[in-house]
Amino acid sequence: MLTDIIRKLTSRKLWLAIAGIAAGIAMALGASQSEIATVAGAVTALISVITYIITEGKIDAAAVKATIVAQGIVQAAGEEASVSEAG
Question: What's the whole-model pTM score?
Fold first, then answer.
């Protein structure tokens, strides 16, 4: 469940939709176009960076996990070979 929430919060589509809603509200409240463009650009850039960092972290974690599993398989195979040679 937490993974689903994190996945949804890292969705660029979600954040662009939120930025669009915020821009619409800002226009309704009388903000200038340059202020709206500046804020929307900053939000888009920030979310892109955060999404990149989270995605790279997940990729790195998966690579570490795969390495650990591979080392466990190699170690188990080595132990199995040692037992066979001793027997």
Answer: 0.56
* Domain hosting residue 22, numbered range: 2-86
Q: Residues 58, 3: contact at Cβ < 8 Å?
A: no
Is the torsion defined by CA of 76, 81, 82, 87 positive or negative? Answer: positive
Domain tally, the chain: 1
Taking the C-alpha atoms of residue 42 and residue 58, their distance in angstroms, rounded to an integer, is 24
CB 43 within 8 A of CB 16: no
pLDDT (tens digit, 0 to 9) for every residue of the chain, 87 residues total? 777 887 777 777 887 788 788 888 888 899 898 888 888 888 778 888 888 888 898 899 888 888 888 877 767 666 655 555 555
Distance of alpha carbon 87 from alpha carbon 82, whole angstroms: 9
